[in-house]
Amino acid sequence: MPEDIYVEMRQSILEGLVDRAAALARQAISAGVAPLDAIHAGYVPGMHAVGEQFAQGKMFLPDMMASASAMRAAMGVLDPELKKLGTERPMAGVVVLGTVEGDIHEIGKLLVGTLLTAHGFRVHDLGVNVTGETFAARASELNANVVGASALLTTTMRRQKSVVEALDRAGLRPQIKVMVGGAPVNRRWAEEIGADGYAKDAMSAVALTRDLMAHKPLALGQA
Ligand code: B1M
Q1: pTM value?
Q2: What angle, rounded to 10 degrees, do the helices at 107-118 and 61-87 form?
Q3: Contact, 179 vs 187, CB < 8 A?
Q4: Which ligand 1 atom is the nearest neighbour of the CA of 61?
Q5: Which residues of the chain does CATH 1.10.1240.10 include?
Q6: How many CB atoms neighbour CB 61 within 10 A?
Q7: Which CATH class name applies to 93-213?
Q8: pLDDT in tens, the chain (223 residues)
Q9: 2-84 placed in CATH 3.40.710.10
């Protein structure tokens, strides 16, 4: 059953079918499929297929928006299931999360936030199109341990550097660590901009945040 439902999940994203994506998520939960498996084996491959088709000119912006809505609908069902795990754990630390200025991609960031919450972190999601100054101001107000800046575009990843610089200017580093992530980002980039770590996916972001909380000296994550 899981393999079949994963194929249907992928298809629901590709076709931008909001109700179908949510119904499949509910069906998976009832059948005992782990929410994280549904995300990674079903829905995320759908988003990747959308990205490929868009790049090849076979899908257009409205299609991509419909796919994003379907993904959000599925996440709306799976999110609470994942977060339930976090309520049973002691608070592991405070994370301020957002997508950088000029960038409105939010699904990867939402997933990172959900998994951090599920692992006991208190996550303050600032949303999308967030300036470096806002990251710094909110991190200071909320006594954050880690700031997480997501970027999905090659044109906006340099804004992650603005986040590092804004925290530096506000005198908030090195107490507050900066984690970066997003499809065009890698470890070398994190090093180049002076971030404290890079995570390639949401699970790695949890491991990295734990490392950063433990003040491990070189916590730059995987390449
Ligand atoms: Co956009 N888009 N998009 N888009 N979009 C991409 C990113 C693109 C690769 C598509 C393509 O051409 N193949 C391309 C970027 C090219 C580039 O710069 N290299 C692109 C483009 C060009 C654009 C526009 C410029 C299109 C246009 O207007 N002509 C435009 C830009 C708008 C803007 O931001 N200013 C645009 C708009 C949109 C939509 C609004 C339609 C929609 C977003 C809706 C939304 O989020 N509410 C959208 C979508 C859906 C995509 C794709 C198809 C899917 C993104 C996604 O949600 N992936 C994407 C193609 C792709 O990624 N293959 C594409 C699923 C998600 C789970 O993965 O976000 O990578 P991801 O997150 C992962 C990891 O990266 C990591 O963990 C996550 C989970 O494992 N991660 C972190 C992410 N953030 C992290 C932070 C961390 C740690 C890990 O720590 C802080």
Answers
A1: 0.93
A2: 10
A3: no
A4: 41
A5: 2-84
A6: 8
A7: alpha beta
A8: 678 999 999 999 999 999 999 999 999 999 999 999 999 999 999 999 999 999 999 999 999 999 999 999 999 999 999 887 666 677 889 999 999 999 999 999 999 999 999 889 999 999 999 999 999 999 999 999 999 999 999 999 999 999 999 999 999 999 999 999 999 999 999 999 999 999 999 999 999 999 999 875 444 554 4
A9: no
Quickly list H helices, 31-60: 35-37, 44-55
| Ligand 1 binding site (Cβ under 6 Å of any ligand atom) | 44, 47-48, 50-51, 54-55, 61, 64-65, 67-68, 102-109, 111-112, 148-150, 152-154, 179-184, 199, 201-202, 205
Tell me the torsion sign for CA atoms 84, 121, 167, 150. negative
* 49 φ, ψ (degrees, to nearest 5): -65, -40
Q: How far is CA 99 from CA 5, 45, 74, 89, 159, in A?
A: 31, 21, 20, 27, 10
Domain with CATH 3.40.50.280 in the chain: 93-213
**Centre of ligand 1 from the C-alpha of residue 152, in Å:** 5
